[in-house]
Structure formats: structure tokens, C-alpha cells
Amino acid sequence: MAASPLALKIANEITLLVTSGEIAAGEHLRAQHLADRFGVSRQPVRDAFQILSEQGLVELKENRGFFVKDTAGGVVEPVSNEAKPFEVANDYQRLAEDWLTDKIPAEVTEQMLRERYDLTKAQLNDILMRAAREGWAERKQGYGWRFLPVAKTAEAFEQIYRFRMLIEPAAMLEPEFRLDRAIIDEQRRIQMRMLETDIERLPAERLLHNGALFHEELIKMSNNPFFHLSLVRVNRMRRLLEYRSRVDRSRTVRQCQEHLAILDLLQQGEIVEASFAMRRHLGGALSKKSPITWSWSQHAQENQSR
Fold it and tell me: Which domains does the chain carry?
């Protein structure tokens, strides 16, 4: 039986997670964990494991489950060019773009969206589930969907960064802040892998995801859940605006280097210095976001002139 489009999408996504270093060679793949991550049942995830097993990326170990092969670090090709991973779904980007540019209302019906974008019910469901996972859509009680506020203007985008400059350095100075070696080691591995091989070849969405993950994992060490919840929420709000911008990959190199420097300070127990380094890092990131601000402002001016 031919693999379903959903299973192929999930297989491609898992391939990206492996090549980006987010899932390590030799790691056990847990179906329920990945199903929760992608907002699907376990069956398409199991089907994806079978696809990847046939491709040689993963292997089934008797009575233990599926594991990424130790030689999988060099696997970079998608399993199918026809089933793109979730991060590059064109229909999702079309919907997001229309929401960002106020071409669709805040409250919509599924029928309206299916007709506007010429989608099947299953395709629209995948898109809306992703939008809900990323924090900018929710199902209304009874009928229809509601799109939630996001960083739709340059001013809001800058306000988010200034907010982060307050909470992320402060989180490191919380009385309950504790170093978590597992977090530090994992983030160091991801950042090193990006510097060594992945910055030029990974999709922009994956680079942005890895950057957000770094900050969200570090803020967990404050052991103050309100810091973490706040950062996750504002990251979701800014994500769409960053997706529609052109990623500066040379800047991503510098960001990875700065991330590693912060990890070094934390590992050495220099918490106050790490807090100052985080503020400098976020301040520098905001100043380098000017191309996004410019392109958004230009877009707004073009709309006003029409």
C-alpha cells in the first residue's frame, strides 16, 4: 500500500529533525511524543517510521522500537519531493500571509477557507491544526475558527524584543535558577551542528525554530514557569512575521556563536555574566532585524498607496 501524504510529511519532518541535530543519531523515536508534536494520531507516525526504515534512516530493534541509525548524520535528502514538511507548506504560508496583511477577517468558517484556498477538508484541517499549535488560531465554541493577535506590525515586533530583553536576562537571576546539564549539553549539540553543517542547507523555518528553542530551554532553568510561558507566547506571536522575512544566514552564524558563548558562561557558573551576555545578544538581534522592519514598512506603504 502506498504511503499517505501525511505519513510522507511526517517522515520528511523527522528527517529534518535528524539532520538539524534536534534528534540525535542512535536516539529512540517515541511515536506518542512525535504524534503530540505534530498534532496527529500515532498511526501516521508509525507509518513514517516504516518509510524511514526503508530509506535507511532508522532501524527497528526487536522489542525496543525504532531508533535513528548511528550513521544517519549524513542523511540530508527528503524522502519525497512531493510531500513537503510542515514548515514549508505553501498553503499554510498563504493563509498566514493573508492574516498578516488583513486580507481575511479574524473569525472565519472552514467552508470559507476551503473555497478561498481550494483545499480539501483534510488539507485545511492540517493547516488549521498547525496554526493552533503555533498559537495564532483557535477553534470557536460550536462553529468556525478565530485568528489570534500576532506581531503584525514592526512596532509590535520591536516591543516583543524589548520585552524579551527584560525577562530573559532576569530569569537567570531568579533565586530558584538552577543549571540543567542536560539542557546545556543538548543546546550545545544543536548549535554546534548548525555551525558545522546546517545553516546553509536547512529551511529558514527550522533555523528560526532552533533559535527559539535555545531561548525557551534556557529560560526553563529559572524554575519560574511564568517566565517560560511568557516567552513561549511571545515567540509564537513573532514567528509568523519572521517566517515571511528573508533569513540572514550570516547573522545566524553569529547568533550560534553568541549562543555558545552564553552556554560557556553558564557552564562555568558565571551566571551574572551570562545574564549580561543574554541582554547584549538580544539587543544585537533587535538591531539586526531592521531589514524585517524595513520590508514590513514598505509593504504597508505599498498597501496604502493602492
Answer: 5-74 (1.10.10.10), 88-147 (1.10.10.10), 154-297 (1.20.120.530)
